[in-house]
Structure formats: structure tokens, C-alpha cells
Amino acid sequence: MSDNYKYPRIPIDSSDPYHQYLERHKKKHGMARFTTRDTESGKLYKAEWAIESLLKKHPKNKQFDTIEEVERYIKRILNSNTWAKLSNRRKCFVGFKKKNGRGFAGRAFGGYIELDRKNGNSLYVLLHELAHEAGAMHHGRTFRNNLLALVGAFLGSDIKRALKKEFRKRNLRVGKPPKPLSRESWEKRREQAKQMRMARYNQSGVN
Hints:
Strand content: 5-15%
Number of helices: 9
Low-confidence stretches: none
Number of strands: 3
Strand order of the largest sheet: 1-3-2
Shape: elongated
Mean pLDDT: 87
Distance between the termini: 54 Å
Largest sheet: 3 strands, mixed
Order of helices and strands: HHHHHEEEHHHH
Structural class: mainly alpha
Radius of gyration: 21 Å
């Protein structure tokens, strides 16, 4: 999914305060494709746990018995318009873990998705991992937008609404992110803040 703003394709100059602002903006609004700290993962997992009972009894949340079933379903998803919009038709492969029942339910890396045969053999887990593979190796805004789009398309609007509600409860933002300020606007605001600080300093000195 598009981030609604194309950051300058120039080397980031860490000494440039405006570039520092752009990096902070990108991280704050969860748009970075790769981040060093996945600060919102805990909240997101809690949101998923909150709808776990709904997912378990939902007729569309298919439980996969064999890897062939998963492969057939993932092929359907990869050929969909939803996937094309999210990922430009990125290809993914899928397999089951060698040791199942413990550890992660699923994980995605480098175009490959690995599922736990006991705890991660559901359509929802597959969609979660595909949301990563669509270009969001974190749990920020871009990932959540990807996940909601996939859930709406393949599990239905009821699950999408429930998940979005849980995101909202935990202040996990979705939708289009705000655009960063232009350099001119940012510099103007920075100068205004500087003037306000100087005014407070001078006022405190008088008192």
C-alpha cells in the first residue's frame, strides 16, 4: 500500500536537521518498510488475541491440514487484485515448520512464509504473514493497512471491523498517514519555536 508520500530519494544526511525530522516522521507513523525497533508489536498481538474466539469459530478462517491446501490458497491470494495493489504481485512460497507446537505461529522472510502446523495452520495467520511480505517487516501503520486489506478481502468485513476496533482501542493508527512538512514549512515552524523559547527565557530573566 502506498505511503501517500514519497520521501526524497537522496542519501540521508544525518547532520541535516530536516532529514532527521523526516526519519522521525517515518518511524512515528509506521511507514518504514524495515525498522530497527518494532515498538507496536505487543499492542498488535493483543488486538489479535482479543478477536481470537471470533476467528476460531468463523467459517471463512480455513484450517489447513496439508501444505498442498496452503499452496492452493496462497496461489489464489497472490493472483488477486488485492495482492497486486499491496505488493505489485510479489511472489511468496510457503511451508510448515519442522518442529511444531512451540515458538512462533508463523514468520515471513525473503519471500518465504513458514507456518506452525498446530498453531499457525489458519488462514488468518497466513494473511498476517502475507501482510509482512507485502513490504512491511514490522507491525506499524503500513503493516496494519496491509492486514486489514487482506482480512477484508479473504475473511470478510465483520472480521475486518472487529480487528480495526481493537486497533483503535490500543491507539494503533491505520489509513493514510499525514504528510511531513516541506523543508520551508518545517524551517518556519522551527524558527517560530525558537522565538517562543527565547521569549520565555527573556520573561523568566525579568522576573
